[in-house]
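Minimal example, chain plus copper (II) ion.
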Amino acid sequence: MSRRPSLTQRRALRAWSLAALLGMAAVVLTACSAMGTGTGISQVEFTHPLTFPAVLSGDRGPDGTRTYDLTAEAGTTDFGMGGPADTIGLNGSYLGPTLRMTRGERVKVRVRNDLDEMTTLHWHGLHVPARMDGGPHQMIEPGTTWRPRWTVDQPAATLWYHSHPHGETAQQVYRGLAGMLLIDDPEADGAGLPAEYGVDDLPLVVQDKTFVDDGQLVVDPIGHASTGFLGDTIVVNGVVGAFHEVTTEAVRLRLLNASNSRFYNFGLSDGREFQMVASDGGLLPQPLDLDRIQLSPGERAEIVVRFSPGETVALASYPPDLGHSIGTSERFGSGTFDVVQFRAAPSLTASAPVAPELADVPAPDAATATTTRRFGITDTAINGRPMDMGRIDQVVPIDTSEVWEVTNQNPQPHNFHVHDGSFRVLTIDGAAPPPQLAGYKDTVYVAPRSTVRLLVRFTDYADPTWPYMFHCHLLLHEDMGVMGQFVVVRPGDKVVPPPRPHDSHNLGVGQAPVDSATAPAETQAAHTDHSVRSGG
Ligand code: C2O
Ligand code: CU
């Protein structure tokens, strides 16, 4: 039996929450900080070996295209919390395999939906044609298969994928529809980074959950905080109370904040420094010595940690710095808690030092931008407009640098994510960003009343109908409408907005009639080759 509220219940909850956010925010916030509900993390014993998602490298066909098969399915997962929980996953009951793709290769993914609900699958951080992006418009009806394809053309990076159906993303990601996606690039091999998957190169999908006594997940994407659900139990790669046996002097952690709304300020439990080597979109120019790296939902970082033989030390999370306007971070996820424990073997295999120069990351040049666009974020809208799938909010010329100026007009935290690859952070409240935000990013924290200026540029793929998304990656906010749509166009393109969802079973713009369950997927595939040709 699923604990998931029915659609009607969820609609009611959403309506309630909208009203709360619009009209009763102060009351709700006061009540929450008094209760502290769902914000504290219960400390657990670290007694379960950390496991890693299986790697899916795809099959290379005669024409060189690599094909990956993913099936969204429902199942049960025993998190050791009193019994099995109803969950969803890809090629398994919870989360999905780690997809590995190599720069320069053509790839094709067959995403089959065996759930009894509609879903989509979005490639977060990937540079892909809008029709292949897996955003809210690329719906995969139950029983059908979606077949996006593209050419991988971006640097080595730790990306991820997750479902993205408008209004349902928070609950679907929470129930398990997410996974890692690693881009490999032979050019990055000289960086001296640990690279043995599951041994010294560890993907860490970090989430917070709440369980009831029989082990079921509490599925309440709305939660008690104005930023959305906060769980009381940390789950890493689907494991509660995880430890990892370290056998090498250095270990690379690929950190992904895949939580609905919790912020993590990662550091080691003894405060030792680590080297940060990559941010969302790829390697930093040089390794950075840090003792903390803060990630808002959707952000990633790669860090290299060095261990001494025989020691036990944990990756912890410390109270996040959410900006001066926030009186208490209690209701946004706070406190200090351990995330995963590392137990170093009595003798460790030597690890190469991290190279002093990692990648060529040219400094962003704001003078190249021809336009400045402004994005004002509130609880339920961007520039006063809640998400509308039938409205194009921004029309952006291809191959053109622009400044996107994002202001958080709220007293609460938001972040900002842009589809189709990476951007650069130019300034935060007028100052240069700290070095951990100076590389390639696709998601950035925007503190209350702050303004972040980004340098964006979209290349290769133009489409006057099918949009990409920009949005807050706190999943409740995204679902409630803190999202907008942009199309990338060539000179002379006439913008034709996409059909709204209630139109989507009629004749969609540029789509063939839908007369069988599998037609939408085939239609997508038929349009693919032309999109890919415009790429590199
Ligand atoms: Cu990770 Cu539009 O999202
Ligand atoms: Cu937000």
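Residues 1-39, 504-536 have pLDDT under 50 and may be disordered. The chain has six helices and 33 strands.
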